[in-house]
Amino acid sequence: MTRRLALFVGGAALAGIAGVMAFGAPTRAQQAGPAVADSIASTYLAASDTADLLGPRQPIFFRHDLHAGQFKMQCQYCHYSVNVSPEPGIPSVETCMGCHAVVAGSDSGGRAEIRKLRTAWSEKQPIEWVRVHFLPRHVHFPHQVHVAAMGPNACATCHGDVSRMPQVFKVNNVNNMGWCISCHVERQVTRDCTACHY
Ligand code: HEC
Ligand code: HEC
Ligand code: HEC
Ligand code: HEC
Ligand code: HEC
Predict the structure, then answer these.
(1) 133-169: per-residue pLDDT in tens?
(2) Taking the domains of the chain in order of start, what are their residue ranges?
(3) Cα separation values, 171 from 59, 97, 139, Å
(4) Which of 51, 55, 122, 186 could cross-link 169 (Cys pair, CB 3.0–4.6 Å)?
């Protein structure tokens, strides 16, 4: 079973979504944006069928394959600081509620997950997302430098095609100095210890 955007096209929610999605002119980096292949119809998955998905289970079954894949939302819409700061940014509940104040979900599984989001919003609780990639504190990793230098496929080069992942998992072992160094050698970037270590 596949789901199509047409399922909720025509719903009252659409104008609101289109409005939010059209928000602001895309920046150069957004246009260059990461790999968003063709439109991908995501497979139906209930939160209860996720046992065999790779990656840590998240407190809400948030699907990149729907949002970034099927709906073609730009990564930067949510990871708002990835072009300008070392930290890409994780969206606040408010960012989600820009749509989900209206979009309630089209089946019981999706509705149950969206209800968790709305509860977090009404109780003013942040969502405790489980981090997938993280480096030890002594390592410095500037996202903005990599995104500027690596161009349109930057995210996918390191993270894989997240826009096809129902649940994010690690494609590259980022906690490995050898991984960093081998790309830096290949692309003739600095290997100075102090570039990466405080
Ligand atoms: C609608 C908002 C939204 C969009 C659009 C979005 N993300 Fe995310 N992303 C999240 C949220 C929320 C999390 C934390 C929960 C999770 O890991 O699924 C996350 C987590 C991630 C992670 C794992 C972070 C970690 O903990 O290590 C990666 C990598 C990522 N996103 C990459 C991308 C890429 C690449 C794109 C574009 C193809 C993208 N995201 C689009 C909201 C979004
Ligand atoms: C630009 C609008 C938009 C934003 C922003 C957005 N979503 Fe969604 N989301 C949607 C639409 C549209 C659907 C599909 C609803 C349906 O199936 O009827 C959806 C579906 C979902 C679902 C149900 C998935 C399923 O299996 O049916 C969850 C859970 C969800 N979103 C969580 C989030 C979270 C968490 C955030 C913030 C990190 C977020 N969304 C941000 C538009 C958005
Ligand atoms: C050169 C490799 C590389 C590229 C390119 C890259 N990332 Fe990352 N990403 C990483 C590493 C390494 C980490 C872990 C960083 C840390 O712990 O400080 C990470 C962490 C993240 C996180 C988790 C941050 C958090 O605070 O939880 C998100 C989200 C993310 N990346 C999104 C993106 C997006 C979106 C893009 C493209 C616009 C991108 N990344 C491009 C390597 C990369
Ligand atoms: C896939 C290739 C690739 C990987 C993997 C990669 N980098 Fe880079 N890195 C680059 C490129 C390209 C630049 C940009 C050089 C420039 O702007 O001239 C860069 C620049 C940097 C800089 C800035 C250097 C300076 O001159 O100030 C740091 C710090 C850095 N990387 C750390 C890391 C760390 C830490 C990792 C591993 C967690 C990593 N990189 C993994 C390609 C990569
Ligand atoms: C391109 C980025 C980069 C450069 C350049 C770099 N490192 Fe690292 N280094 C890392 C990362 C990422 C880790 C974390 C790996 C891990 O979690 O085990 C690390 C880990 C380490 C560790 C700890 C290993 C451990 O087992 O905990 C030492 C020691 C270290 N580096 C020394 C150096 C020295 C000395 C240099 C210069 C010759 C250097 N590094 C250059 C990225 C870099």
Answers:
(1) 999 999 999 999 999 999 888 999 999 999 999 999 9
(2) 5-133+160-170
(3) 21, 29, 20
(4) 55
